[in-house]
Amino acid sequence: MSFNILAKLDVKKDPNALLRLFATSAVLSAIVIIALAGYGLREVLQRYVISDAEENAINVSRALLAEERDRIVTLKQDGSSRIEISPQDLPRLDRHLKAFLTPFDIVKIKIYSADSRIVYSTEARLVGEVDRGNARLNRALAGNFDSKFEKKEEVKDLSDESKFDRDVVETYIPIRDQSHQVIGSFEVYLDVTKYREQSRAAVTLFLGILVLILVSVDALSFLFLRKGANDLKGIQEMLRKQTLTDPLTGISNKRHIQLTAHKEFARASRRRKRGLADVDLGFVMLDVDKFKQVNDSYGHLAGDVLLKELAERISSSLRTYDTLGRFGGEEFLVVLPGSDLEQTRQVAQKIWMLIREEPFLLEGEPVAVTASLGVSAATEDDLEYTQMLKRADEALYRAKSAGRDRVEG
Questions:
Q1: CATH for the stretch 67-194
Q2: Where are the domains of the chain?
Q3: For residue 326, what pLDDT is reported?
């Protein structure tokens, strides 16, 4: 996996992106591995077939030469040898060679003299032809074995019958005299089609095992990676909550409630510009009255308990799409989408009543608590949510100045 690919992944925002990349990479890698392994195994098996066929062709040729040397190899007056077959011996040699070669899956054989002339062939019409441009024959006449695997659409066997779709290994085998000088060459066509299904079965079995191994390894890796991704998501969620949530009360912190206020104000403004409904927005600013006295009388831990229960009471009175946030200290902000000024006042009155009508239990003692609230609602003249926030804060200040424990705005 390249660094560039990893760089494009936003794993911080989406840990599952790493899982998707792993799954894609695993599939692509498996395809490449299976393709290369299948090709490699096929090449190995084919080389084995060629090697085996070459060995068989060499053994058959040597046996044939040993049996028919007197009719194939002629001694010249200078004591050297040459490949030569008299026309009178060809019919008998042909019958004998075909009978001799039939059990060995040989479909054709040629015998060349040192000058590249065909002196015998199971395909009689080729006798007498000269094949000097044959590079493989020239290698054999230079003393080297040369074998090649080929697929033939049609070949004729020793009985001159056509066989279709055959796999054939063509092997050139040097013929040497008693002084080991090359005096000619055999060209043997060995039918190896019978190995085709065996090779396919071997490749299929091998690839099946390989697929099973790859799937098992990738599945285990995926499980471990998914666990890591889930752990990362859990950590991200925890960090997100820590970033957006007030640790004491569990509601939105100041940063998050300000972002919510900004988002809802922008949404309402867009709808107003497009002439749509639901363009109202209300804010409620709340401050606990004489909170310092609570801390001084009952301790800061009791003050924390008060703020937590206060947040729970307010949250229980709001709609699911309203947002409550701790604005700072004992001050809270409520964002009310879709609420005009009158509706916002009603919500503020409800909150005010919830706080003052039921005492808070602090250090085992019921304590009456009151709050001052200021409300505001969006107007067509507002350009930013901060203008609304300022009016709500000013209304809260008036409530405090007027004796606390009331709603203004």
A1: 3.30.450.20
A2: 67-194, 254-408
A3: 96
The separation between CA 123 and the C-alpha centre of its own chain, rounded to angstroms, equals 56
Q: Which two tokens stand for residue 142?
A: 């230079």
The three-state DSSP-derived secondary structure of 172-201 is: EEEEECCCCCEEEEEEEEEECCHHHHHHHH
Marked catalytic residue, from 170, 187, 330, 331:
330
| Residue entry with tokens 């109202």 | 280
Confidence check: pLDDT of 8 > 80: no
| Residue 282 identity | G
User: What pTM was computed for the model?
Assistant: 0.51
Tokens found for residue 132: 């000097």
Give the integer Cα–Cα distance in Å for 306 and 299. Answer: 11
Identical fold for domains 67-194 and 254-408, yes or no, is no
**pLDDT tens-digit series, residues 161-192:** 778 888 888 889 899 988 889 999 999 888 88
Q: Are 113 and 83 in contact (CB under 8 A)?
A: yes
Reading the block at residue 130, the tokens are 């000269």
**What are the DSSP calls for 345-375, one per residue?**
HHHHHHHHHHHHHS-EEETTEEE---EEEEE
The DSSP line for 235-268 is HHHHHHHHHHB-TTTSSB-HHHHHHHHHHHHHHH
**Span 247-267, pLDDT tens digits:** 999 999 999 999 999 999 999
Pairing of strands 146-156, 118-121: unpaired
330 is catalytic: yes
The CATH superfamily holding the domain 254-408 is Reverse transcriptase/Diguanylate cyclase domain (3.30.70.270)
Burial class of residue 154, CB neighbours in 10 A (0-12, 13-18, 19+): exposed
> One-letter amino acid identity for 48?
Y
Q: pLDDT confidence of 1, banded at 50, 70, 90?
A: very low
- Read off the tokens for 271: 């709808």
Coil vs helix vs strand at 332: strand
